Amino acid sequence: MAKTSPGEFMRQVQAEMRKVVWPTRQETITTGIFVAILMTILAVFFLGVDSLFGAIVRWLLTLA
Description:
The protein is an all-alpha fold. The chain contains 2 helices and no strands. The chain has a domain at 23-64. The chain crosses the membrane at residues 33-61.
């Protein structure tokens, strides 16, 4: 692999940063709200699954 000088590396980084398309404020807000909603749904789902398995384990332990 060829070595690049620090100056060449910085020019390459700047060239790549010019290619970046940053999201708009509205896209960022929409994505954030979507992530928060999905996180809440998944948290409630896993709470339910965990509670169900906990109840099953407690029931099985009462049989022993």
